[in-house]
Structure to design on (332 residues):
């Protein structure tokens, strides 16, 4: 047995015929996880659609308070991080170690910028008493009574959906950093790069969720 | 062993450019009031909503096909992904159909 075969044997679980079959199976598993994520975010979008349909005026007034410019900048930042993630996956597949680490760190940086902008937006809602709860007030939206309660529902959904989205990124960043450390030590190359590829799928999924959150929350009134 | 498909970075940059362009378009279009036609059965959906969702779907498709390599994935993976969206469509369409049609037969049960 040559040393090369022995090397790839250690990466190959015994129940798979070869590395290609193993990669197809793990990728399929990741997609099943993402399919489940589609359903759970889908349910939230559905709730949003139903409430928007019922409380149209309050939702329009509340969504006008969001800063479209910040939302658009964040969309561009997140799309940029998807590009660097895709380039990281490519660097791993062709065995460019330094490029892989650089693109992973760039993805972390862009992800952090996104979260920073999100923090600025959350602070604005806090200062204007738009965080759902006892201190919520429809004053800045010029809404009172039932309409204010309905706007509170909008902000419950806003914080719930963007918060869950941000949580996904907060989970993704340490994973990316772990990949960067392992990648620097030479763990990934043309023969084996599945962790980088699967993390890429996760990161792109998070990007897709934002691609829908942005028009739903910021653009449609 | 299956042939590994390595996507050229040139494709990634092209997709990135298209995504940025579509983001710009969707922001610009949102500022224009496109009107609110009656589609069917008294359902009124503003054109702005239709356009914003259509652009988002195109952007998502670009990410899924190219960034997530689904265009080059095995058939089995593609079928699983397709099934995920079929279930999502059932969830959305059946629930929304219920909410839209509640007032049609007199009274308003369930609210």
């Amino acid at each position: 047995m040559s040393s090369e075969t022995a090397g790839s044997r250690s990466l190959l679980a015994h129940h798979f015929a070869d590395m290609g079959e193993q990669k197809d199976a793990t990728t399929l598993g990741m997609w099943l996880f993402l399919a489940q994520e589609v359903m759970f975010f889908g349910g939230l979008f559905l709730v949003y659609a139903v409430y928007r349909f019922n409380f149209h005026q309050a939702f329009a007034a509340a969504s006008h308070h969001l800063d479209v410019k910040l939302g658009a900048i964040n969309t561009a930042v997140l799309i940029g991080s998807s590009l660097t993630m895709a380039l990281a996956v490519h660097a791993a597949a062709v065995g460019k170690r330094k490029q892989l680490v650089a693109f992973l760190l760039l993805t972390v940086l862009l992800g952090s910028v996104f979260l920073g902008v999100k923090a600025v937006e959350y602070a604005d809602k806090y200062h204007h008493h738009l965080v759902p709860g006892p201190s919520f007030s429809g004053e800045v939206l010029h809404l009172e009574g039932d309409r204010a309660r309905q706007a509170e529902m909008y902000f419950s959904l806003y914080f719930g959906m963007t918060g869950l989205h941000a949580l996904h990124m907060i989970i993704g960043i340490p994973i990316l950093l772990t990949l960067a450390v392992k990648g620097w030590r030479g763990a990934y190359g043309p023969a084996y790069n599945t962790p980088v590829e699967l993390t890429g799928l996760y990161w792109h999924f998070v990007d897709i969720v934002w691609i829908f959150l942005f028009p739903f929350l910021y653009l449609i009134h | 062993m299956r042939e590994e498909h390595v996507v050229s970075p040139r494709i990634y940059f092209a997709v990135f450019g298209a995504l940025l362009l579509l983001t710009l378009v969707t922001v610009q279009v949102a500022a224009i009031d496109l009107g609110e036609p009656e589609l069917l059965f008294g359902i009124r959906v503003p054109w702005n909503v239709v356009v914003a969702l259509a652009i988002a779907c195109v952007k998502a498709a670009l990410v899924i096909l190219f960034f997530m390599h689904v265009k080059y994935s095995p058939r089995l993976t593609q079928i699983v992904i397709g099934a995920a969206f079929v279930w999502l469509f059932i969830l959305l369409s059946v629930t929304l159909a219920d909410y839209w049609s509640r007032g049609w037969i007199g009274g308003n049960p369930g609210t």
In short: Chain B has two domains: 1-73, 75-111. Helices of chain B lie at 9-30, 47-67, 75-101.
